[in-house]
Write a structure and sequence with these properties.
Layout lengths: L1 E5 L3 H12 L3 E5 L3 H8 L10 H10 L3 E4 L11 E4 L14 H13 L5 E4 L7 H10 L7 E4 L9 H6 L4 E5 L3 H10 L7 E5 H32 L3 H9 L21 H14 L5 H25 L6 E5 L15 H10 L3 E5 L4 H7 L4 E2 L3 H4 L5 E4 L4 H4 L3 H7 L4 E4 L6 H6 L3 E3 L4
Length: about 425
């Protein structure tokens, strides 16, 4: 099929590249000229394992092109995906200005019946808003579909190619829904066709439920520390229950971050308030998540006392491994708190250092994980990159001023670290 994707962020770029990889003729549109220039040189604006190889492959095959011009390409497109950002506003609601701006441009340039698909994460009712916005400028027939994404940064290509499910929502265009479903037919994934509002709700409900699991296990971890239990083994025992499952989000740590969970939890809380629904459970999920970072800083203070002038090594900045994304990352409030307390911070991250440097220029950075630890009073592990799991802790001990590790991701076995003569604090153990 001939497909247009508006937006080349995480969602839009992965959508476009993967559709091209399946043999479709794809045009990706973005207003950012610098980003489009890079993409046409097969350089990805985001860090996602394997994506540059796919961009290069499909550019060379002529199955994908990147442009700033919507108007000159829209007429040939059978399906148009809106995959622009929906950042939270001051109240936590999803800001729809980019979605509605895209819908307006579509409306101004449509000349015949086409299928418009919301791929962005949007509040319930946005599909109808998109329809109304297009209809202000185009009086002919068209269809609006909701097709939420379920990608995880760091494994986005794998998630797209091997999805758990494909959700497609429509208002009155079942044929349009089936047309969109054909794009994914080769993936042999379960396809759920619903109305627009249900599809939009599935995305928020899924992410909020997963976030609830994270806050739940972090609350359990707090009890474990008090009573002498091991939260890792507690979670293992829970996952053996088939009703919970081995893939449950029950890894205790510093809480959830990134571009999806925080934004979607906040948005669903606001949707509940707007509809006079008391969603106390989700309110507390957000509270627990924020407290988890504060408790971690408190652990450091409790052990080290006055942090003024203390050198703190930090491993990991991205909100999770295999991404350079620091949006709502636990590292940011933790480093801000430590910096405010006078700590001398030296941080290392495999790919995300540059992003934090723009946000917090006062932070020092090391070129290697080991270098960050030289003369350090403590080491904080905030992101569980594989590199950190394999490092020689005996060497780390020898170059630190005081060998103390605060492990926010439980990446080591307590007994092993302590046997090396390192003071070790983790989460829920």
């Amino acid at each position: 099929m001939k497909v247009m994707v508006i937006g080349t962020g995480y969602v839009g770029l992965v959508q476009g590249v993967c559709l091209a990889e399946l043999g479709n003729d794809v045009v990706c549109v973005d207003l950012d000229e610098t980003k489009i220039k890079k993409l046409n040189e097969a350089k990805s604006p985001i860090y996602e394992p394997g994506i540059e190889e796919l961009i290069k492959k499909n550019l060379e095959a002529g199955r994908i092109k990147f442009t700033t011009s919507l108007a000159t390409n829209i007429l040939d497109s059978e399906i148009i995906f809106i995959a622009v950002g929906t950042p939270p506003d001051e109240d936590g609601r999803a800001d729809l200005k980019y979605v509605l701006a895209a819908a307006e441009q579509i409306g101004k340039n449509l000349t015949h019946c086409q299928v418009v698909v919301n791929k962005s994460t949007v509040p319930i009712g946005t599909g109808q808003l998109v329809r109304e916005t297009i209809a202000k400028h185009y009086k002919g027939e068209f269809d609006v579909i909701s097709n939420p994404e379920f990608l995880k940064e760091g494994t986005a290509l794998e998630d797209w190619m091997r999805p758990d499910r494909v959700v497609i929502g429509h208002s009155n265009g079942h044929k349009a829904a089936e047309k969109v479903a054909k794009l994914y037919e080769v993936l042999e994934a379960p396809v759920l066709i619903t109305n627009l509002e249900t599809a939009e709700m599935i995305k928020y409900a899924s992410n909020s439920y997963l976030a609830t699991q994270i806050s739940f296990i972090n609350s359990v971890a707090g009890i474990c520390e008090k009573v002498g239990a091991n939260v890792v083994e507690v979670a293992k025992g829970m996952k053996l229950d088939k009703r919970i499952g081995e893939k449950a989000f029950l890894n205790a740590g510093l809480g959830y971050g990134g571009s999806c969970f925080p934004k979607d939890v906040e948005a669903l809380i606001q949707i509940a308030k707007d509809n006079n629904v008391d969603f106390k459970i989700l309110d507390e999920v957000e509270v627990v998540n924020k407290l988890q970072r504060e408790k971690f800083v408190q652990k450091v203070q409790n052990r080290l006392g006055n942090l003024k002038g203390k050198k703190i090594a930090v491993w990991g900045i991205a909100f999770k491994p295999k991404t350079d994304d620091i949006r709502m990352a636990p590292s940011v409030p933790i480093l801000e708190a430590l910096s405010a307390l006078g700590a001398d911070i030296v941080a290392f991250d495999t790919v995300a250092a540059e992003n934090l440097a723009r946000l917090m220029p006062e932070i020092k950075f090391a070129k290697k994980a080991m270098n960050a630890c030289e003369g350090a009073d403590a080491l904080l592990i905030i992101t569980e990159w594989d590199e950190f799991k394999q490092i020689d802790l005996a060497k780390v001990k020898n170059i630190m001023r005081t060998p103390i590790i605060f492990d926010g991701r439980n990446i080591y076995q307590s007994e092993v670290v302590k046997s090396l003569g390192i003071e070790y604090y983790s989460i829920g153990r």
